[in-house]
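#struct-help
A.M.: can someone run this one for me? Single chain, 239 residues.
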Amino acid sequence: VPGRAMPDAPRLAWPQGMTRLPKAMAEGLQVVTDVRVAVVRGDGDMLELGQDQGNTLGAFDWVVVTAPGAQAADLLDTSPRGAVRASDMRAVGYDTAVMVLAGVAMDMPEWFAHRPLTGPIQYITNECAKGRPPEGGVVPVVARLDPDVSERLMEESDRAVLGEALPALAKVLGKAAARPAWAQVKRWRYSTTRDRLDQEAMNPEWTRVLVAGDAVAAGPFMEDVAATGRWAARRIIGA
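D.P.: on it. Structure tokens below:
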């Protein structure tokens, strides 16, 4: 099949799914969901967070912002001396991503990831290589569509996405992929950055509102993004 295998460099993965690690890290912590943090106010030696309906969420020593560039910029605009950093964050461009998760009845591929040379699919990953075994001969795969195709299909129905993605997937994995055992469509408006900022430069010594996340990562992988969180932790601990 025309295409090429992607590098099998050591990577981090959770067989239980991408959210397993943060869920484990959140155990024992107070986690608030379904709230939009809209403002960061300087309150003496503390930082006060407020939600979009005007209610106060509490006062904190430090705030770490990991939202995508445009969303982080809105919050930085409200923080002490944050306007310049907000402008820099808004300049970070993102590609959208539409992905198809499918279970295909086939022999397990020997590769971790495959990048077709033509067609709407940017790359395919073999989820079994992450420690998730096939069930009943059905191999779970993830197909990420090309950024231009993703942008075009972002607001389209799942049926329209599958109608374009499954025939392309079948060209790589065989005709069984045209009728998978199951299939899901996932969409990310802010998926991968086209460019990135320097984390040190984005977080001057005087600020206690730290920027982390993909916009200031050294590279595009999850390991790179995780490193920005460790950088912020060292900054807080060493303060």
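A.M.: thanks! The chain has a mean pLDDT of 90.
D.P.: also worth noting: The chain is about 30% helix and 30% strand.
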